[in-house]
């Protein structure tokens, strides 16, 4: 009986983890956008971007490529890209974040097609921007940023990009991330137009203390602040029609570690007492049997 109960709890946790992935760092969830396909939680260029079934893990990866010899393809994290003519839309898009990452890691392939004789291969580009809205100026301030240029590789290769902390002590409220097919944007005009293909999979954000957290853990419908948890933290959730009344916290083996009933308002505060360092799953429900909103956090 105990074994069956544990299996049921693990299945519940797995389902919660899947439902929490508003931003899918593994690029497993897709939608149609601008006549092409884009990962859920991302915007894309009108051409030169799409799904790649040759994933490093799971079923899919994200791919951007040059088109018509000079056009660049790109994906941008966030749903606020107003128009493809705005360069990557980093000033107009972004996704809420309650965390200041120190670096971003992932895996990529960058395949150069037809290159003019004597020319050097181009570079793929990754741009990261951490922003905080300034109420006095009415515009976001940059509190962290990174730019990386990745050279051609045939097979999936790990990359690590350190994010420069431009405003120590100031926490961002949003993150924008762009994956761009090339730096120069040109390839051999005598070719068939086959240029550069930049494919990315398995993105992760890393805290200054070295804890690796998925994008989904940080940017889901419900969030833990701060994450990682040192002493006291607060779980908040998006408003609308979701009004949870109960909170349950499980360890990764499915053991119930905390049960809080009678939640009201837009958040619930908890302390880490009784929670050993490690990873945990939380579950918010409006009532017993209702669908859950779930997420993950780390206790330091």
Ranges with pLDDT <50 over ≥5 residues? Answer: 1-23, 80-86
CA radius of gyration is 21 Å
- Corresponding CATH architecture of the largest domain: Sandwich
Fraction of residues in helix: under 10%
**CA-to-CA gap between the ends?**
33 Å
CATH class of the largest domain: Mainly Beta
Count of extended strands: 22
Number of domains as seen in the coordinates: 2
CATH topology (level 3) name of the largest domain: Jelly Rolls
The proportion of strand residues reads 35-45%
Please describe the structure with a list of short key phrases separated by commas or semicolons.
22 strands; Immunoglobulin-like; mainly beta; 300 residues; single chain; 6-stranded antiparallel sheet; disordered N terminus; 2 helices; 2 domains; elongated; 7-stranded antiparallel sheet; Jelly Rolls
Structure description:
This protein has two helices and 22 strands. The strands form five sheets. Strands 3, 6, 7, 9, 10, 12 and 13 form a seven-stranded antiparallel β-sheet that branches. Strands 4, 5, 8, 11, 14 and 15 form a six-stranded antiparallel β-sheet that branches. The chain has two domains: 2-20 and 221-299, Immunoglobulin-like; 30-208, BT2081, beta-jelly-roll domain (Jelly Rolls, Sandwich). 37% of the residues are buried. A hairpin with a 6-residue loop joins strand 16 (222-225) and strand 17 (232-237). The two termini are 33 Å apart. It has helices spanning 2-19, 215-219, and strands at residues 30-33, 36-39, 42-44, 49-52, 61-65, 74-77, 95-96, 103-112, 124-134, 139-150, 153-162, 164-165, 174-180, 196-206, 212-213, 222-225, 232-237, 246-251, 256-261, 267-271, 278-285, 293-299. By secondary structure, the chain is mostly beta strands.
């Amino acid at each position: 009986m105990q074994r069956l109960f544990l299996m049921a709890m693990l299945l519940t946790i797995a389902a919660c983890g899947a439902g929490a992935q508003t931003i899918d760092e593994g690029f497993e969830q897709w939608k149609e956008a601008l006549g092409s396909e884009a990962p859920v939680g991302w915007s894309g260029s009108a051409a030169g971007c799409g799904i790649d079934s040759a994933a490093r893990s799971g079923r899919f990866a994200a791919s951007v490529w040059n088109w018509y010899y000079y056009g660049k393809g790109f994906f941008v994290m966030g749903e606020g890209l107003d128009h493809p003519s705005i360069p990557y839309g980093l000033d107009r898009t972004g996704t809420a974040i309650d965390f200041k990452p120190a670096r971003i890691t992932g895996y990529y392939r960058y395949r150069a097609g037809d290159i003019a004789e004597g020319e050097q291969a181009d570079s793929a580009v990754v741009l990261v921007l951490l922003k905080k809205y300034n109420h006095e100026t009415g515009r976001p301030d940059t509190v962290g940023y990174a730019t990386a240029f990745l050279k051609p590789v045939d097979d999936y290769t790990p990359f690590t990009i350190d994010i420069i902390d431009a405003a120590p002590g100031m926490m961002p409220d949003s993150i924008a991330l762009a994956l761009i097919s090339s730096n120069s944007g040109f390839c051999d005009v005598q070719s068939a137009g086959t240029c550069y293909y930049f494919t990315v999979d398995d993105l992760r954000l890393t805290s200054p203390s070295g804890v690796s957290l998925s994008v989904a853990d940080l940017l889901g419908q419900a969030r833990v602040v701060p994450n990682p948890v040192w002493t006291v933290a607060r779980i908040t959730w998006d408003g609308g029609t979701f009004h949870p009344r109960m909170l349950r916290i499980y360890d990764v083996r499915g053991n119930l570690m905390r049960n809080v009933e009678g939640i009201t308002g837009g958040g619930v505060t908890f302390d880490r007492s009784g929670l050993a360092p490690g990873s945990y799953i939380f579950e918010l429900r409006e009532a017993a049997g209702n669908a859950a909103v779930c997420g993950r956090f780390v206790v330091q």
